[in-house]
Amino acid sequence: PANSLETEDVEAVSPTIKECVPIIETEKTDSALSFIVVGASGELARKKIFPALFSLFCEDRLPENFTIFGYARSALTNEELRNMIIRNLTCRIDKRKNCREKMDQFLKRCFYHSGQYSSEEHFLELDEKLKEKEAGRSSNRLFYLAIPPNIFIDVVRCARRRASSENGWTRVIVEKPFGRDSETSKELTRDLKQYLNEEQIFRIDHHLGEELVENLLVLRFSNLVFEPLWSRNYIRNVQIIFSEDKGLEGRGRYFDNYGIIRDIMQNHLLQVLALFAMETPVSLNAEDIRNEKVKVLRSMKPVKVEDAVIGQYKGDSSYPAFTDDPTVSDNSLTPTFAAATLFINNARWEGVPFLMIAGKALQSKRAEIRVQFRHVPGNLYNRKFGTDLDKVTNELVLRVQPDEAIYLKINNKVPGLGMRLDSSDLNLLFKSRYPREIPGVYERLLLDAVEGERRLFIRSDELDAAWKVFTPLLKTLEEKKTAPELYSYGSSGPVGVHYLAAKHGVRMG
Ligand code: NDP
Fold first, then answer.
1. Of 57, 95, 195, 358, which residue is least crowded by CB atoms under 10 Å?
2. Which residues line ligand 1 (CB under 6 A)?
3. Interval between CA 263 and ligand 1 midpoint (Å)
4. pLDDT in tens, 27-84
5. At what angle do helices 78-87 and 99-107 cross, to 10 degrees?
């Protein structure tokens, strides 16, 4: 299989890759799968969950006997739910020729039950409808909590008592936020565990379904060239960047309550950092991977206030400020930008700064990991030609967006008679190398939950360790009412981030 990767025929490569990677095939058993979308009338359900389920159906990845139930308070009929699904179909599949036919088949499996979130009676009614569809087969039930977190526990209680499977598994996908800090997160975990065990809880962070997150482990553990360099001996610093070019514009209510540190850093970026920095797991088994991630998180010290910068975007004649949003309070101190330097106190990473940057309303939409390597000691070319190359270190960039790519900056001779050096890229651009549809992030994660594959879901001890890294900083910022540094909409963020990067010797990409 290894040498077949050299072939240029991408289509020919894929089956070989499939052979190498243990892909778990969808259960094609006689048992029934009931997928219950709680909060089916909401934005997440409409825009992400139903389209992802439809894509999985079109890809033939759902079990033979599956049924989807929407559950919410809104008084919708089955027909109204189905119309809502059609109206919001923005998935990759809708461009295919037989989409309409597939959609008709899919909609026949979709039903709606209107009920209160805290009513055991209403969940009992749901159970009866589910049983009818399951038609005496053994049943597996997957609940997706697409609802605000303050009603999670009511739903879990009712679902557990009145609508859980009697002869198969029952799993619950829980959407973030998983609490606001260490205490509230522990409380949520404790309350969930009154009704569910850890194996039943699938804490979802949709960014972890990104192709490059999965690829990070492939890159590290199936290439000989990177792993020996993956430590403080060769890596000078790591940047983990997540920037968006849009502000909150009308969607600020949720965000004003949480801020960018809770929304992006504490969960998503910290998970990426853990995958980046962890030791080789015993196997690709979810528990082995999560065991290694949690060790990284537990080896980190809480972020110090002096190692963090927070910002908030301001408006101008063209763009609204964060506080112009009618759903945001006028004197909000909520950060829409944050940068923080984190350190991992273990033998591999001691002293290496990990600079995390996340922000809204910045100049570009960008998600990437940048790894800067150390300088070449006693660089011959610097000495002989006095070039500036010593400052241009090798850099490995793993980019999720705008275009998925992995590239390595190397120093290279410019062709010609003289000796002129240049920094250029070895570039793997995914859309050129693999010109094919990339499944949506929700598709991957929903399929994993159906198949019981937990490696991209967050375990409670990871969550706990992740909160410990950021809770003291969040507490200090909130107690001291620290004002975020204002930055212009569409800029590169507050000036403070450049000082923070300089303090830790990070050259910002
Ligand atoms: P919505 O605000 O659209 O809520 C979903 C549904 O929950 C609503 O349709 C409503 O249904 C019900 N609901 C809303 N507010 C309340 C309330 N106060 N009390 C009881 N029921 C209520 O949320 P989203 O769909 O946007 O998100 C759902 C969850 O997913 C949230 O926890 C959110 O943080 C998280 N999330 C959302 C993302 C997104 O892209 N939207 C991305 C990542 C996470 P009804 O009135 O019919 O009962």
1. 95
2. 39, 41-45, 72-74, 117, 146-149, 151, 175-176, 254
3. 16
4. 446 899 999 999 999 999 999 999 999 999 999 999 999 999 999 999 999 999 999 9
5. 150
Angle between helices 270-277 and 460-479 (to 10 degrees): 130
Segment 395-441, tens digit of pLDDT = 999 998 888 999 999 988 899 998 888 889 999 999 999 888 788 89
Those residues whose C-beta lies under 8 Å from the C-beta of residue 92, and which sit 6 or more positions away, are 55, 437, 439, 440
For residue 192, count CB atoms less than 10 angstroms from its CB and return exposed for 0-12, middle for 13-18, buried for 19 or more. buried
- Neighbouring C-beta atoms of residue 379, cutoff 10 Å: 14
Cα 413 to ligand 1 centroid, rounded to whole Å: 56
In Å, how far are 30, 32, 140, 435 from 168, measured between CA atoms? 12, 9, 5, 40
Predicted TM-score (pTM) of the model is 0.91
The type of residue at 108 is K
Q: Residue written as tokens 């829409």?
A: 336
Q: Hunting for tokens 């899919």 — which residue is that?
A: 106
Rounded CA-CA distance 356/161 in Å is 42
**Residues constituting the chain:** 509
Give dist(CA 218, CA 240) in Å, integer: 18
Give first-to-last CA distance, the chain, whole Å.
36
Residue 206 Cα: closest atom of ligand 1:
43
Ligand 1 atom with the smallest distance to the CA of 177 is 34
Token digits of residue 103: 């959609």
Q: Which helix (H) or strand (E) holds 129?
A: helix 120-134
Report d(CA 304, CA 310) in Å as an integer.
Answer: 13
50-58 and 441-451 helices, crossing angle to 10°:
70
